[in-house]
TrEMBL record:
The lineage of its organism: Bacteria, Pseudomonadati, Pseudomonadota, Alphaproteobacteria, Rhodobacterales. This is tRNA-2-methylthio-N(6)-dimethylallyladenosine synthase. The gene is miaB. GO terms for molecular function: 4 iron, 4 sulfur cluster binding; metal ion binding; tRNA-2-methylthio-N(6)-dimethylallyladenosine(37) synthase activity. GO terms for cellular component: cytosol. Its EC number is 2.8.4.3.
């Protein structure tokens, strides 16, 4: 179509931003935009940003700088900034980078089409409100186009926990859960369009308490209901807080077949002194007991986590406690970060740990985590696992998919298997993926 405009979205940060970018692309589809994967021929460029760690805003400004030439060559090109940097910086973005036409915070995406219509030709549009209305209810319905086998679905957003290092409660706002019916409708719609695996998203997903029949539903109840959808083969959820792992959710890991044996359960530190200063409201011991209960329900569950090293006042003994906790848990996969100061958060005001100490601790922690990851991957060799094939692999005749435990698995298989869960015998373990052979049944 001649009048179709092209939209280039670049997404940073977490899976929720990936989901939001899809929804924004769909919303702008109604305004005549189709996606393009290069900024060069775009009529609109949208950066969906992340503010979780240092230099996030600086990265956005330097990325914007790169579009100067494009904007000069095509003045009607619209440039927008969305996501958590948009929320945190607001109008400052347009002051520092006047070629930006539009700044939209994560709670206002449903207003994007109206903002897009207004912005451009010297007009600016800015919205970083936390509006009362549910943005999801006002976002355009997802179009009926066929989808890949795996999809994200946001069920909860925001956070009331206020960990001392974290900007999320300020950028994403208070905890809000989407109503049960909306989640179920969106899930059914995704399945009709070819989705076989849904990952439920929330900054504190296991604090989900969406309105449903008979009152608020827990995440476990929602998962059990989703499991009744024919054609939906797998359910996952992320990210969880240890204090919100209730008995039913633990039990669901044991008795709900569609709930996959993988759990991302960040602890951040193994030192009670630091956990307290982080405002995590649990001890290392409580976390370890919780892991025991989860493993009792689902012995083969693969655990993943997040760690911060060099939090203000962290001593070598505190760090040793983190290493000891990791030794006890045996994680299959982890994310670990140097503490980075976030202005406006309580920890930013405290005595900071030297950068070289942080770097040294991160390297030591990552060496241990990599060893654990490799051991757990190696232990998969010889086992038979379910793999949902998602797309062609790098080599001819090969497909790549995810195992039940969320390992990437490569295997020789025909394209007709994309979207199917196959039984695969694992034959090898590489740096970040497994190799396998489809077992014919
Ligand atoms: N510095 C370093 N890491 C952080 N995270 C959140 N805030 C910070 C910060 N200020 C990490 C936490 C969280 C993950 C999403 O990002 O580990 O779980
Ligand atoms: Fe941030 Fe803590 Fe909330 Fe997670 S639980 S989003 S780390 S404040």
């Amino acid at each position: 179509m001649a009048d179709q405009k092209k939209l280039f979205i670049k997404t940073y940060g977490c899976q929720m931003n990936v989901y939001d970018s899809e929804r924004m692309a769909e919303a702008l589809g109604g305004a005549g935009y189709i996606a393009t994967d290069t900024p060069d021929d775009a009529d609109m460029i949208l950066l969906n940003t992340c503010h979780i760690r240092e230099k996030a805003a600086e990265k956005v400004y330097s990325e914007l700088g790169r579009f100067k030439g494009l904007k000069a060559a095509k003045p009607e090109l619209k440039i927008g900034v969305a996501g958590c940097v948009a929320q945190a910086e607001g109008a400052e973005i347009m002051r520092r980078q006047p070629m930006v036409d539009l700044v939209v915070g994560p709670q206002s995406y449903h207003r994007l089409p109206a903002m897009e219509a207004k912005a451009g030709n010297g007009q600016k549009a800015l919205d970083t409100d936390f509006p009362e209305e549910d943005k999801f209810a006002h976002l355009a319905a997802r179009p009926k186009a066929q989808r890949g086998p795996s999809a994200f679905l946001t069920v909860q957003e925001g956070c009331d926990k206020f960990c001392a290092f974290c900007v999320v409660p300020y950028t994403r706002g208070a905890e809000v859960s989407r109503p049960v019916d909306r989640v179920l409708d969106e899930a059914r719609d995704l399945v009709e369009r070819g989705v076989r695996e849904i990952t439920l998203l929330g900054q504190n997903v296991n604090a989900y308490h969406g309105a449903g029949a008979g009152g608020d539903w827990s995440l476990a109840r929602l998962i059990r209901e989703l499991a009744r959808i024919d054609g939906l083969a797998r359910i996952r959820f992320t990210t969880s807080h240890p204090n919100d792992m209730d008995d039913d959710l633990i039990a669901a890991h044991g008795d709900c077949d569609k709930l996959m044996p993988y759990l991302h359960l960040p602890v951040q530190s193994g030192s009670d002194r630091i956990l307290k200063r982080m405002n995590r409201s649990h001890t290392a011991e409580q976390y370890l007991r919780l892991i025991e209960r989860i493993r009792a329900a689902r012995p083969d569950i693969l655990l993943s986590g997040d760690f911060i090293v060099g939090f203000p006042e962290e001593t070598e003994a505190d760090f040793a406690a983190t290493l000891a906790l990791v030794e006890q848990v045996r994680y299959g996969q982890c994310y670990s970060f140097k503490y980075s100061t976030r202005p406006g958060t309580p920890a930013a005001e405290r005595a900071q740990v030297d950068e070289d100490v942080k770097a040294d601790r991160l390297q030591r922690l990552q060496a241990l985590l990599s060893r654990q990851q490799a051991e757990i991957q190696d232990a998969m060799v010889g086992r038979e696992v379910g793999v949902l094939f998602e797309k062609p692999g790098r080599e001819a005749g090969q497909l790549v998919g995810k195992s039940d435990h969320l390992h990437a698995v490569h295997a020789q298989a025909g394209a007709e298997r994309i979207g199917q869960v196959a039984r695969v015998r694992i034959t090898g373990s590489g740096a970040n993926s497994l190799a396998g052979q489809v077992v014919e049944v």
